[in-house]
TrEMBL record:
The keyword Oxidoreductase applies. It comes from Gordonia effusa NBRC 100432. Keywords: Oxidoreductase. Belongs to the short-chain dehydrogenases/reductases (SDR) family. Transmembrane segments: none annotated. GO terms for molecular function: oxidoreductase activity, acting on the CH-OH group of donors, NAD or NADP as acceptor. This is Putative oxidoreductase. It comes from the Bacteria. InterPro entries: NAD(P)-bd_dom_sf, Sc_DH/Rdtase_CS, SDR_fam. The lineage of its organism: Bacteria, Bacillati, Actinomycetota, Actinomycetes, Mycobacteriales. It holds the Pfam family adh_short. The keyword Oxidoreductase applies. PROSITE patterns: ADH_SHORT. SUPFAM superfamilies: NAD(P)-binding Rossmann-fold domains.
Amino acid sequence: MALTRRSRKQARYPLAGRVIAITGGARGLGLATALELRNAGAHVAIGDIDEAQVKESAAGAGILGAQVDVTSRDSVGDFMDLVERELGPIDVYVNNAGVMPVGPLLGYQPGLISRTVDIDLLGVIHGTQLAARRMVERGDGHIVNVASIAGRLAAPGLSIYNAAKFGVIGFSEAASGELGPLGVAVSTVQPSFARTALIDGIDFPGPTVTPEAVARGVRYAIETRRLHTVVPGYISGVAGMGIMPGPLKRRLLSQRRYYRLFMSPDTERRGDYDARVAQS
């Protein structure tokens, strides 16, 4: 979603001077988002499990970088403490860290299932709660949870990822209802599949997006405090397919190979990403 002239007029919450912390910021969507927000005048910090890469990326961008493990509440709390010591109170916290294993449900190892849910869902819940506690004390703040169009539309081969991202959207809607009256906004950004290592080894026939387009979507969500932002905007109607009758939905999606797409990825092309997920 590009920031059109109309959407810029809707930017009620300017970014200049605001302190923004982003998880999963060493590469891909997180780093693109950090650069977009930095260029808009925000004071940005990125955290990532990959300490060497996050420090290299931060140094290259001229921003603050630190290791953070989103599956550890203590680690997330330490990251927030560091950001606030170095940059000031966190105005916006972006839960971006995530992994996307693909393949048949019967082939998932228990450890990978747990790790995916720990990062993609529990990491968002813990990050939201810890950030919100700080923001509620000040009566203002914003939490952006990066979900996915896969949080609206399920497909074979994505069962665990679907479960986590559906959870992120439902959790965010509930949290928004609770925290909004306390001055803290909660938003989701729901991108289509981005052109990052997430889709290595998958011959995706549908719309994909660049990390920079997702970054603009995050910026739009922050500037407007909109509850849900789909990127690209023209696929917003896809979210409605989630409430279609099952047979009709399967018939429509099968025409686009969506229902077979993630069941048999090219494991060789996907090897580097899968290895990084296993070590995360």
